[in-house]
Amino acid sequence: MGIISRGFRGRPRDDHGRLPPGQYQVHDFPVLSAGPTPRIEQDRWEFAIDTEAGQTHRWSWQELMALPQESPTADIHCVTKWSKFDTTWQGVSLDVLFEDVETAAEYALVHSYGGYTTNLPLEDLLDGKAWICHRFDGEELEPQHGGPARLVVPHLYFWKSAKWVRGIRLLNEDWPGFWESAGYHNYGDPWREQRYEGD
Ligand SMILES: Nc1nc2c(c(=O)[nH]1)N[C@H]1C(S)=C(S)[C@@H](COP(=O)(O)O)O[C@H]1N2
Ligand SMILES: [Mo]
């Protein structure tokens, strides 16, 4: 076997290192849904945070719209290896929704209309890291991409960004969601390539 320099074999860094390991860039917006697209009218939509102490905080669509809105731009990374740069959203920061929520819980289980669930540490939803978004690229979020509203938590693999989001349950103990209980990584950091359990 000859000596092959790592520098020769290695790929050039993509777009100044914005592409996590094993990912490639796409310019379209793939749709990945584990089941049919639920249709929820805005006037029937609600979002709730349930605390570990049994308190519920609810927002109607009108109440969500009345909250301060942010327009995050983020790179998103799907575990099936596509990444999309500079996606532009509009929605409400989870920091705003958690303002009046008293909790000592460390874990969050996000659930969606249609039954999808995904789990993450509560701290990954706070401090400007996550939003409930209802607009994408300047338009109302399409049903196939999670409209009326979805979670967007771009620093983790995109399966954590629950479409058709309905609520968040705060838990003292971690509880795996849909993909997390099917062999995917519990945390899902794309920069550490945490795709599957054991990665
Ligand atoms: N409710 C729900 N949310 C979901 C999913 C799903 O199947 N159901 N798929 C996840 C996965 S695997 C990915 S990659 C993204 C895909 O979002 P997109 O279809 O808007 O690209 O949504 C995530 N959120
Ligand atoms: Mo995904």
From TrEMBL:
<protein>
    <submittedName>
        <fullName>DMSO/TMAO reductase YedYZ molybdopterin-dependent catalytic subunit</fullName>
    </submittedName>
</protein>
<feature type="region of interest" description="Disordered">
    <location>
        <begin position="1"/>
        <end position="23"/>
    </location>
</feature>
<dbReference type="InterPro" id="IPR036374">
    <property type="entry name" value="OxRdtase_Mopterin-bd_sf"/>
</dbReference>
<dbReference type="InterPro" id="IPR000572">
    <property type="entry name" value="OxRdtase_Mopterin-bd_dom"/>
</dbReference>
<dbReference type="Pfam" id="PF00174">
    <property type="entry name" value="Oxidored_molyb"/>
</dbReference>
<feature type="domain" description="Oxidoreductase molybdopterin-binding">
    <location>
        <begin position="35"/>
        <end position="179"/>
    </location>
</feature>
